[in-house]
């Protein structure tokens, strides 16, 4: 298999939540690997949406994702950059912040 990614991904296998415009509520998923440009996500269902919101921490920080490829319940996403933070609300009605993608990724207490 030919590697086509611009940056190497870091395996994290971490639980996260997805939010879709068309469907109310949050939906569980697993982020298999990640870098500053995108991630590989698996879910117990087929991810049909082309864009969605991904969060690791209860939506206090979010990644806005666009699906690049799909294979059954696995998909690769790229992170979208927005000039302004979208006004999203979590379940408590508070606004959320967009995670800045120019930060270094911390994995097991070390910076990579």
Describe the structure.
The protein is mostly beta strands and 112 residues long. Mean pLDDT is 78; it is low at 95-112. It contains no helices and 9 strands.
User: In angstroms, what is the radius of gyration?
Assistant: 14 Å
Total DSSP helices = 0
N to C succession of SSEs: EEEEEEEEE
Tell me the overall shape.
globular
The portion of residues assigned to helices is: under 10%
Mean pLDDT: 78
Which blocks of ≥5 consecutive residues have pLDDT under 50?
95-112
Strand content: over 45%
Biggest sheet features? 6 strands, antiparallel, barrel
Structural class, judged by helices and strands?
Answer: mainly beta
The strands making up the biggest β-sheet line up spatially as 1-2-3-6-5-4
Instruction: State the total count of DSSP E strands.
Output: 9
How far the N terminus sits from the C terminus, by CA atoms, comes to 25 Å
